[in-house]
Specification:
Blueprint: H1 2-23, H2 60-70, E1 73-75, H3 80-90, E2 95-101, H4 103-106, H5 117-129, E3 137-143, H6 149-161, E4 171-175, H7 188-198, E5 205-210, H8 220-229, E6 234-236, H9 237-247, H10 252-255, H11 264-283, E7 306-308, E8 344-346, E9 355-370, E10 378-383, E11 386-392, E12 401-422, E13 431-439
Parallel strand pairs: 2-3, 2-4, 4-5, 5-6
Antiparallel strand pairs: 1-6, 7-13, 8-13, 9-12, 9-13, 10-11, 10-12
Length: about 450
């Protein structure tokens, strides 16, 4: 019994030893400790940053030029229409740009038509905002040398719409600030152009562009209130260049080709002034479009002038002794086309019968030719049988250019009769009526 008891005791001791070893943590008697901190993570390598290409510092000349262009911006006006034109061009829709004005708009002084502000602006607009190389941006230049807004309202339908295959413009730039010096309406015909455009079905954006003469003169003080009244974008070339001409940093010979017209460099400045306006409008928050005021600021008698010439059917004009056609009317500078080919001319052998027209109108305008030829003589202009003007078709400084008379400007429409007859002693002289304009 004793041996058996000892063996049992030994087995019990072995069992207790094995249990103790198991309780101490495992078969190899190693204790694994739980870490009290998270293991250190290796940092994700930071990619090497490529330094941005530094913007080259502007030169003093570039700063000077940019400041000059910035000074031209008088107002962005209500930006809704201009923004719509920009977005329309960007989307690939067809956009029609038209400029109307005098000889600066026509391109005088620019040496080549491609250099004139109107043409170069349209090209840059197409490049910046158009699609497919600007193929969706179309341009028509209705500039005409030596002409004010009084003639602009007469030829609007013909030169802005009919020559554009019946399309209304999406963007119209009006430049008459140096041509309206002898406007007898003191801005009413200019307002008529603005109102005519703003009433178009295309609801175009209208920009007022104020160019300047070498004498540092223009009419922006007269015309600016019209722009403010209709909340239009306005660009003043005068504000840009005159301070630099005054301080001598811009030379007259650099900007002006003569006493009136810019050089090619001057035309580039005008183009850049217009593009600066668009850049600012493009960056602005969009505004809700404003409606054109129902009441005019001065007059609505010139909103929609109907132009009559010798080709107009049913015009009611009786030519009388003005049955010849004058082929010596001046041409558009770069197109070399006769500006008023369908006219009424009184030649020496055409008889003494007057030209007459009768109709209902609030406004009545007569466009005639000035010639340096001494074969041209005087004519009397009658309204309702009364002589209102005796005019001389001969002018030593004439260059076969048009001149416009405002004969009727009334608040209410009434029936009027226009008569043009050769003055006493001028029956054997020449005189050319280029067009008649009237507004109901």
């Amino acid at each position: 019994m004793k041996k058996h008891t000892q063996r049992v005791w030994m087995l019990l001791c072995v069992a207790l030893l094995l249990a103790a070893l198991t309780a101490c943590g495992g078969k190899d008697n190693k204790t694994e400790s739980t870490p009290t901190t998270a293991p250190t993570q290796e940092a994700t390598p930071t990619p090497t940053e490529v330094p941005a290409t530094p913007t080259p510092a502007l030169s003093e000349k570039e700063i000077w030029y940019n400041n000059m262009i910035a000074d031209s911006l008088m107002s962005t006006g209500n930006n809704a229409r201009l923004k719509r034109v920009i977005e329309k061009a960007r989307s690939g829709e067809d956009v029609y740009i038209v400029t109307i004005g005098g000889s600066i708009t026509e391109g005088e002084g620019a040496a080549a038509y491609a250099n004139c502000y109107a043409s170069s602006f349209a090209k840059e607009f197409a490049k910046v905002y158009g699609k497919n190389g600007g193929a969706n941006v179309h341009f028509l230049n209705a500039g005409l040398s030596g002409t004010p807004s009084t003639l602009g309202v007469v030829r609007y339908e013909r030169d802005v719409i009919a020559k554009n295959e019946g399309r209304e413009p999406d963007l119209l730039i009006i430049e008459f600030a140096v041509n309206d010096g002898d406007d007898p309406t003191n801005g009413q015909t200019y307002e008529g152009l603005v109102r005519r455009a703003m009433q178009s079905e295309s609801d175009p954006a209208v920009i007022l562009l104020f160019s300047v003469f070498k004498s540092k003169w223009n009419l922006q003080d007269r015309l600016k209130p019209i722009g403010e009244y209709y909340d239009l974008p306005m660009v003043s070339v005068k504000n840009a260049v005159v301070p630099r001409l005054t301080d001598g940093s811009l030379k007259d010979a650099t900007y002006f080709n003569d006493a009136y017209h810019p050089t090619a460099y001057g035309h580039m400045i005008m183009k850049d002034c217009l593009m600066y306006l668009l850049k600012n409008v493009d960056a602005e928050e969009a505004e809700a479009a404003n409606a054109m005021p129902e009441a005019p600021k001065m007059s609505d008698a010139f909103d929609k002038i109907v132009m009559l010439d010798a080709a107009a059917e049913g015009s009611g004009v009786k030519a009388g002794g003005f049955v010849s056609t004058d082929k010596g009317v001046f041409s558009v500078r770069y197109e070399k086309t006769n500006t008023f080919p369908n006219n009424w001319k009184h030649a020496a052998a055409d008889g003494s019968e007057p030209l007459t027209w009768k109709g209902t109108c609030r406004s009545l305008l007569l466009v005639y030719k000035k010639s340096s030829s001494q074969t041209f003589g005087k004519a009397e202009i009658l309204v309702d049988g009364k002589v209102v003007k005796t005019i001389d078709g001969h002018d030593a400084g004439g260059w076969n250019n048009p001149y416009t008379l405002v004969l009727v400007n009334e608040a209410e429409a009434a029936e009027h009769t226009l008569t043009v007859r050769m003055a006493d002693g001028n029956a054997d002289k020449e005189f050319t009526v280029l067009a008649i304009g009237y507004g109901e």
